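Re: beginner question about structure tokens

> Can someone show what the tokenized structure looks like for a real chain? I only ever see the sequence side.

Sure, here's an example I had lying around. Input first:
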Amino acid sequence: MPRSNIPEPIKVLSPELFDRVKERTEGTLLDLIKRNKDTRYVSESPVFGGFRSSLEHLRKDKGDEVRDDMLLESYRSAIPLTTYDSYEPFVKKFLERNCQEDDVRDMFSPGLPYFVAVSSSTTSTKPKYFAKYKHPPGSSYETVDRSANPVSDTGGKNCIVYSLNYRQLVSVLNGDGDAVKKLPVTLMSSGSIRMQNGIDVEKDTCALQYTAPRATSPIAVSFISKYRSFLLMHALFALADTKVETINTLFGTIFIDMIRYVEEEWDNLLRYIETGELPDWEGTDHVRQWLVPKFHASPERAAELRAIGRTAQEPGWLVRVWPMLKVVIGIASGVYAAVIPKMRHYVGPDVQLRSLGFTASEAYVGTVYDPENLNLYKVASDDIVEYLDVSKEEVAANLVAPWQVQPGHKYEVVLTNRDGMWRYRLGDVIEIEGFDPDDGAPVVRYVERRNVALRLGGAMLSEEHLAKAILAVQDKLGSLIEFTVVIDDRNITRRVGYLVEIQELGAFSFARAILIIAKLSKGTEADEAPDKLLHELCRLNPQFKFGLDTEEMRPPTIRILKPGTFADYRRWRIEVTNSGSGQMKVPVVMWDHGTREWIFKRIDREVGRPVLVESENRGQFTYSK
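And the corresponding structure tokens:
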């Protein structure tokens, strides 16, 4: 859609839109209540005791047919805020060694789920699992599926970098011990693709033989579990095709990883394209029989690519590789926005960077509102989103409906969905931009995870604080690709420790590279970054300054990682956790001891010098010790 055709979100709902949003929301909520109120979860979990009592009282007074307004009132007054703690004991029944149909049927919604989504465990030490049911046509998932593999009016092709692997396969057994259903335990993206396209696990052998319409890669590539091999094989088939118009990697970080692998293997990739020899990369043996017949020698294409050269240091390199390239799809909002400059460098100014939407393992929260804005979403209407003002007490009584939210205010997303979650705290904080002038749906920006990312020295630092602070020092440090934060406990008094990966000099113009080299040779630019970082953290959070003054912590540190560290991290974590290649994210704060030890081995150097700290006398500074 052209930018001029996208209306700006309105700040106030008209009376007509107010009524439409209210009617639509309450209609959806009633459908969800009626569908899921008699499930095992609602019938047995202690958190729904008040709701069960309310329904029982209504049935005694009104019979089995309870009026809609009374159902809504029971929901609003008796359903509390819920978390994974109440959900987990029930979803774990699907993961038991002998999963019995009688134990799991109608658990969260009528029938059996299509798959069990497993989170990437970015913000917790262990993954979470969510039962996902197949829903009637017309859902937001179908909209996402169409956007993921768009139809071109010029014959363009799509490089769709999604995984179809699963962590385990659960057989649901009947009383005779026969399997009545096989449930893949997999990433939300993988399971959703299977569900929307009818790729049941029983059909995998058949699916391996085909290539999806408009796709550059055969489906068999999506069954490669080794991360590097998975990305390189997708890239190989895409490079062999001159008509690539869309590259869809779900996350912007995965796009960066794939292109960097292409840079590393450029000469080998061109040799494979020239000869038609399929590489025997690690973890590809089981799919070779389906890939070899689909990979053909193309000496002409190899010659074209050699003439273009591995000139990734030049902006827009990928447009020369793929002249028809129009769109790159990859989530890059919130703390992951740091990859946008690198993505833009690779594709140049004219290729559109897009997101597939506001997604989570629990639900699809919002569709893209403005294709040119990677962090602006229209809240979907398939499920119910309520809003908990972050400035108020965290109780259900403080929830507000979509027609009650205020532009400029920040809220935590609370979800009631078709998959049987009730007022579930998603933990994501959004800011209301306004409302869609066409149908009144809230238009939101993603801000951060609600839980405080880091507590140190009395200061409670959010993801937003940590991200804004390090992004503000790029003029000193260099353009950032990704970062994570650890507690730097090398001394008794701890610090906030940043581990960052910055763009190599090859990602800049020659003139910019010369300028950076000149500045670094003087030992000033990068070494000034911790000073500026300190001041940014103090500006964003006054408690940080207080913690320094009381000597409960020391100024922050910045250590630069070797190039490619975060790509290697994703590959390592995917293989360690047996996760699909497509949803592994770098945590904003890294707590796991084993992970910390792994990444510490990849530190290249530390920047900085004694840090200037502002004293109590305004405008005076002293060196910290």
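Each token stands for a local structural state, so reading them left to right follows the chain. The radius of gyration is 26 Å.
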